[in-house]
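ERR on first pass: missing label on line 2. Operator R.T. fixed the label and resubmitted. Corrected input:
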Amino acid sequence: MLGYYCMLALYSFKRSKTVTALMTLAIGLGIGASMTMITVLHVMSGDPLPGRSAHLYVPVIDPHPVSPVKPKDNVVDGALTWIDAMYLLHTTRADRQSAMAAGSLPVHPAQGSLRPFFESGHYVTADFFPMFGTPFRAGGGWSAREDENHARVAVLNAGLNRKLFGNASGIGRTVRLKNTDFRVIGVLDDWQPQPTFYAQIDNAAFGSTDQFFIPLKTAQELNFGIAGRMQCWGNGGDARLSDHCAWLQFWVELDSTAKAHAYRDFLADYWRDQQAHGRFPRPVNAQLYGLIDWLGNQHVVPGDLRLQLWLAVGFLGVCMLNIVGLLLAKFLRRSGEISVRRALGARRRDVFLQLGVEAGMVGLVGGALGLCLAEMGLWSVRRQPDGYAHLAQMDTAMLLGTFALAIAAGLSAGLIPAWRACHVAPALQLKTQ
Amino acid sequence: MSLPPIIASLTRHKLTALLLVLQVGLTCAIVCNVAFMIVDRVQQLRQPSGVAESELAMIESTDLDQDAQPLVRHQIDLAALRTIPGVQSAVAADALPFNHHDWSNGITLAPDGPARATATVFDGTAGELAVLGLHLVEGRDFLPDEYVPMGSAHDWNGIDQVPATIVTRALAEKLFPGQDPLGKNIYPGDNPIRIVGVVDHLLRPQAHESADNEYATVLPLLPDANDVTYVLRTAPRDRERVLKQATAVLEHLHANRILRYAQTFEQLRADFFHRNRTMIGLLVAAAAGLLIVTALGIAGLASFWVQQRRHSIGIRRAVGATRRDVLRYFQFENFLIVGTGVILGAMLAYGLNLLLMWHYEQPRLPMPYVAMGATALWLLGQLAVLGPALRAASVPPVVATRAA
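pass 2 clean. output:
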């Protein structure tokens, strides 16, 4: 019976080619636009560190003074002062903890043929590597003792290692960063979590990768510049080690919710204690964010993209209304034909099924068109110079999702018209003919 | 043309008419808001930066010497750059509009007072105003003895020693509303700095909320870090050649350095607004797509109705209606449906705008956008229905005599 209904549907399409083409195009455009945006947002809100993210947290202690100047969009950036970060680092209340800051340094290649170049990396502390489970191709990280000794050691990412030492691992070799020689003790296996969740979240959160990691205290001793925001307030200049400049990121690993609660209490105690000593004048408590919550809080997905998604969904909505209207007009125009079928013994559900098949077919063809349009949309996204561009690929789930969405859209658009059409009173229609 | 028969006929197609009204309403609401966003973003794109954009080229240099003497290095480099044919003038600076090099300070009007505004520091060697082409509307340029080093190796303590500043008009009006800012003292650091001049426009290196976008102080601070941006003023047609030559000259002069971001100011601006331009393109495409789909929907439904009513049109014609009457009938019917849709759309537009104000800090939708969106949809509806209505008008009266 379904085959017969498909044939009837094709026959009906042939009778009104323009309207059928219009409906297919509308559903295709709507689905193409929506799926492009859904895919982009899907890949951007993915978990940058699957398996570990649930145990990673950001402690936020807002050290800023009360100020009549409104801070930009009221979002704390989570940066800590040196004093607070070192306190949290040295009390070691979490399973693992690391303070860090981004840096961009000139690299001097040993070979004379290569000119010096800038590379971006991070100044971190020992726990960074085990906490984030960075995959090592060779060697490993450094210890807390080396942190304290301001050791001149470095961990390179695969890209910089290849650039400096070719295919050989650079373990034991020397890399010159700015004006200081560092001994390479580890090489990462092309570690590039997307987004670079541990850094300050900004426009470069996607697409950027860190190529070197050196001990934070070494970088501080050598007065290496930091890349990113540093906020200072009050008098006394912009001193990095003071308690009035916030510039460090801090991450902790807490393996159970009980530990997370305990750490939250610890933060609250510290906050109250410091407040009693005249610091932290803002009426905001210390916070502890989980990794995924933190990315949401920091708007890692730009507002423009979310706006684009809503626009695409709105567009799909208008297309759907359009199709419902057209299908309704189309089905009701066939009241006579439907009445004849009903008079010959077809049940309401038969008519409903027949018209549903027709609507579903519009959805299917529109979905296929939408898929092509979504692939084209994603291709054009990939051509943009944005950092997230290369991520814009459709996976199997998205592919199936597109078809499911298309057929669901086609069927739900056909539902009301088919329902109305199968409730046409056959006697009345037959009489007027 | 009397209203009751049209309404009576529409009640026979309640659901279809309702769907069309909804579609028109939704389209109207979205298009009004999208048009507003487009205009808002185009305005951002067109913001004057205050500098002579078409005549500037920049190159960033980082000295890698252990014992680098930045102040000396900058003077030697600048002297060499000025000898390049086509270079009218050159300065060393750190902050420029759109270059993200934003060092902002809270500005107070008394020591330890509350910060009245946060403003960017524009530093640079002597002659920066002239090279950038800033327009001094009051006061004077800096005197040679007012320049002090930035102190980048000493927590940028130059800001506590510098005696004079030139501020933007926006900042002057924020700090001293209705007063003459010349001669007044401000405190971006620990010590007072006297305002000696006012420029009309200068955008900050990063985007800020609209009112804060021009809160800037130009200070006679000499860049003294190892990395610095050389800004060259040339005729627009010389820019590319000058940049190539500048790279060669700087490398020849001192090889142990990294040169980056050799570009014209227009490239810098284009990169800064890249996302904005993409967004404008998408918004325009979305609005156009919506309007086209809605127009096609109106036309499609109208032609269905015309086909369905051929017999009744024939009867109307046979009993004396002119072609014009039939045409008017369909046009008026469309006018009613789209009109209802547009009224619904205007309300939805404000609702949507409220949501956007809540989530995206979008300003309130001004009335003219809704009026224009409504008119546009009305016209579009009439245009879309014209074809089917003309077809209806051409139905001959003889149809009435045939069986339906």
